[in-house]
Amino acid sequence: MSDKQRQEQQRIAGTNGLPFAIPGSLSPFFDIIPSSPQDAVAFAKVWLDSFATDSRNTFWWSTDHNIMVGWIGRRMIRKMRDSEVRHFKVIEITTGGVVAFARWTLPKDGHEVYGEWIAPHEPGDELAEDPGAGASGIASTVEIAAGPLVCPTGADSTACRIFFDALGRASNKWVTPTTLGGCSNINPKSLPR
After folding, report:
1. Packing angle, helices 65-80 and 40-51, rounded to 10
2. Which element (helix H / strand E) includes 122?
3. What is the DSSP letter of 126?
4. Alpha carbons within 13 A on the beta-carbon side of 168
5. Is the pTM for the entire model greater than 0.70?
6. Residue 13 has pLDDT above 70, yes or no
7. Where are the domains of the chain?
8. How far apart are CA 21 and CA 101, in angstroms?
């Protein structure tokens, strides 16, 4: 990357450590900052709250909210390990509470422009404060490989598989370089599967 490109990236990022400028429309009561694996539980709660009122998303869920938070939290950490993806959180400034998060798949030249990825966890690490922990209170080991879908305890496993199969088909159909505005600089390997 040239010095000019690096300077432009630093100008855009400003002092918040983000690879983009914070939108001017963001309320001054909120901030966007990089995330860490410790945010996985907060992200899981935000995700669950976002979909809780839509039965098209909840029909397969476990009735135990803590199990769902732990299950989604482990999935969040697995996604945070992907070197092609960056996660950011929107926090409420006075409390520091996470109110939203964003996942961004890097463009093809992303590592050159936005810097190298630093692994958030080493294999075998556990999800901090895993509310889905077993009776022993020990957090579940984070799954390292994607492998077959393991539905949350207490969830309708048939409905869970139907949901994720449909989600996969929709992703394969709609998340392609030709459906993303004809953008030709997309790295197909970075698209969700």
Report:
1. 120
2. none
3. B
4. 9
5. no
6. no
7. 3-148, 156-193
8. 16
Edge-to-edge, what's the strand order for the sheet holding 85-92? 30-34, 85-92, 98-105
DSSP-assigned beta bridge partners for residue 132: none
Could you report the per-residue pLDDT of 34-73, keeping only the tens digit for each? 888 889 999 999 999 999 999 999 999 999 999 999 999 9
126-185 pLDDT, tens per residue? 444 343 433 333 233 333 334 578 999 999 999 999 999 998 898 888 877 665 554 555
Helix then strand then coil, in percent of the chain rounded to 5, is 40, 10, 50
Q: Is 41 exposed, middle or buried (0-12, 13-18, 19+ CB in 10 A)?
A: buried
Q: pLDDT: is 124 or 46 the higher one?
A: 46
Q: How many CA atoms lie within 13 A of 134 on its CB side?
A: 5
Q: 10 Å Cβ neighbour count for 101?
A: 21
More confident residue, 18 or 180: 18
Give, rounded to a whole angstrom, the gap between the first and last alpha carbons of the chain. Answer: 30
Place of tokens 């709250």: 49
Q: Between vectors from CA 30 to CA 114 and to CA 14, what angle results, nearest 5°?
A: 30
